[in-house]
Amino acid sequence: MEQDIIEILSNQDKPAMGAIEINDALGFTSIEDYKRLEMKLEEMTSKGILYYSDKKKRYLLLKNSHLIKGKLLMNSKGFGFVEIGEGKKDIYIGKDNLNNARNHDIVLIELLGDKTEGRVVKIIERNEEPIVGTVYFKDGKCFVRPDKKNNIDIEILEEYQKGLVEGHKVLVRPIAGNRYVGAILHVIGHQHDVGVDVLSFVYENGFCPQFSKDVLASIQDLPDSVSDLECEGRLDLRDKIIFTIDGDDTRDIDDAISISKIRDGLYELGVHIADVSYYVEKDSLLDKEAYERATSVYLVDRVIPMLPHRLSNGICSLNPNVDRLAMSCIMQIDKQGRVVSYDIKKSIIRSRLQMTYNKVNDILDKGVIAKGYEPYVNDLKLMKELSDILRRKMVERGYIEFSSPEAKILVDEHCKPIEIKLREEGTGENMIENFMVAANETVGSFIFYQNLPGIYRVHDKPDEKRLNSFFQFLNARGYVVSGKKKHITSRNLQNILKQLSDKPDAKILNDLAIRCQAKAVYSDENIGHFGLGSKCYSHFTSPIRRYPDLILHRLVKDYTEHYSDEVVEYWKTNLKEMATHCSIKEQDAQKCERDVDDMKKAEYMEAHIGEEFEGIISGVQEFGFFVELKNTIEGLVKIENMPKGGYTFVVESMSLINRNNKEKYSFGDSVIVKLISASKETSMIDFSLISKKKQKCLKKSRC
Predict the structure, then answer these.
(1) What is 386-413 written as a DSSP string?
(2) What does the H/E/C string look like for 419-473?
(3) Contact between residue 580 and residue 519 where contact means Cβ atoms under 8 Å apart
């Protein structure tokens, strides 16, 4: 019946019909049939297939109505965005327009104003995922107040109240639909205990900081060292000069590198990756847990690992001066940066030294050699030589060097933020990035050009509407850039950004270009990687902390050692679902990391209320604008905290204009603001506007 109803309402001559009209069109004549039809219409409406107009008493297909269906993603600051489809811009939902919708609810929205903002009209499907909140008691009853401010308080059944005290942070599951009655799944800790604030976001985003007893028991027999038997059949590279380069506090070491020059103009680069798939047996209890997590989560004071520490920091980690099993991608690269030949082998390696980026940068940039690094200086210089060649090659093909500074939040022993500064990337970081890109492309191509099922890291072209908005904004600021603006390639966009690189507002133009980009995801279909300018890219180099890399290692082994039609069919059947799951979990991890960073930034700013700061307008909405400080802290200037006057929001120039004095506040403008409030509890930071810094007059200029 459902398909028949859809076909009837697809008629363009009469797309909206009442229940009786639909009944007649179906040819129903009995009361029983009409009652069945009413039930089906109600079901299709609740599922978001149909829309029912109360005023006109008519049904029509949702796609033909003014409403849009999507998934609500809440921000910890109380507002949200609705995802409405791949390649379409998410719709902003202010906290006053949520209509009691909760995080991850499937909702119907109507667009407001300039159609970048919306209002929830109906909740189609309630999200029944567990919720994190704080316990309180009132009138003899126990409640949990969800951390997400739009969620309604949940009453806790008496049988789940044992041991609960006021202020406990808990994970709760609603169990009675819209009655908001729930059961306690886990007590995270008291809200004032050290680290519970961070753990709350970990649980809120669907991650668990501990491994189950069963998982830990299943790895008790794993070895702590590599045996002679395990070395058999592997390429023995223990006599090679191999070392690792990571951050000062890295404990889970995925990758090691080696270098040699075969002859003038031909280099041999070895990228040696921990052979995690040897220890994580497919479909084992450990493997299922790793798949469910799909990624490690890196937070200000801890790591929520994909694998237990016995593996991630132990037998799988490429620690110095011990034998380790690896998968080695050994590439011969010419002076143009082309990989002319390669081998991907199971290997046994022994890292000579655990280097740090800081000390490598001192050697390559300052000529300062740390103790213990002396034997490897020539290797590092040769690596730098090859790295420069690879980077030139990447840039030539369209690699876009986006500049997007990240914050490093330093906390004390009580997890209280004491400093927020920018992460610095030097020569060593860029060198390792270049080498990992080369290995990832090489292994991805090994799968792709054999026409075998594979998993890829793909990055689609930018959304055309967002790009058009970007070009309109450039025009509004007086810039005329040369180059194709339709069907844009990565080289086109790279060229446009290069033209803007010496402009005084280059940073905000770069930020806006980043916002035009699609999300990079995992896929079983190779569409290339736009941002890297790569035709074939995958993730091979971090199997300790990313499940897609573990999948790729298994693919390589299956296709080289266990090839059969059954093996190919298995991967062909399962890779799509695996890739989708890994993409979702990656986004969950990124959201968790952002949520924690936002909370800690707000906590840090609580000690600076009343102080003035210089920042850049980083976003403009009808209700005010956001200001980003140099250390990436971002806060909101509401219209009520701006000079008095009615304000007009101009989408094209991303501006608010004061109708009284014509003062204009645009994306990218420098402003002086005063901190008037900051709340760790809500992750909110509010500024008042002190003044707008005078901008240099930008005449129409051809870049």
Answers:
(1) HHHHHHHHHHHHT--------EEEEE-T
(2) EEEECCCCHHHHHHHHHHHHHHHHHHHHHHCCCCCCCEEEECCCCHHHHHHHHHH
(3) no
Query: Which region holds residue 177: left if phi is over 0, alpha if psi is between -120 and 50, else beta?
Result: left
Contact (Cβ atoms closer than 8 angstroms) between residue 421 and residue 409: no
* H or E stretch at 89: none
Q: What is the pTM of this model?
A: 0.84
CA pair distance 671, 651, nearest whole angstrom? 20
Around 668, how many Cα atoms within 13 Å sit in the side-chain half-sphere? 20
Q: What is the DSSP letter of 311?
A: I
Q: Considering only CA atoms, which of 456, 472, 687 is closest in space to residue 552? A: 456
Percentage of the chain modeled with pLDDT above 90: 65
Number of neighbours of residue 279 by Cβ within 10 angstroms? 19
Place of tokens 């009520």: 640
Helix (H) or strand (E) holding 600: helix 565-605
Please state at what angle helix 196-204 crosses helix 565-605, rounded to 10 degrees.
140
Contact at 8 Å (CB) between 260 and 267? yes
437-479, pLDDT tens digit by residue?
999 999 999 999 999 999 999 999 988 888 888 888 888 778 8
Confidence class for position 701, pLDDT limits 50, 70, 90: very low
- The CB-side HSE value for 125 (13 A sphere, CA atoms) comes to 13
Q: How many CB atoms lie within 10 A of CB 149?
A: 17
Angle at the Cα of 638 from the Cα atoms of 634 and 644, rounded to 5 degrees: 140
- Residue showing tokens 């909206």: 16
Distance CA 551, CA 605 (A): 42
Task: Quote the CA–CA distance of 637 and 631 in Å, as a whole number.
Answer: 18
408 vs 63: CA distance, rounded Å: 45
CB atoms within 10 A of CB 29: 10
Picking from 22, 113, 114, the residue whose alpha carbon sits closest to that of residue 61 is: 22
Return the residue matching tokens 């890292």. 351
Taking the alpha carbons at both ends of the chain, their separation in whole angstroms is 61
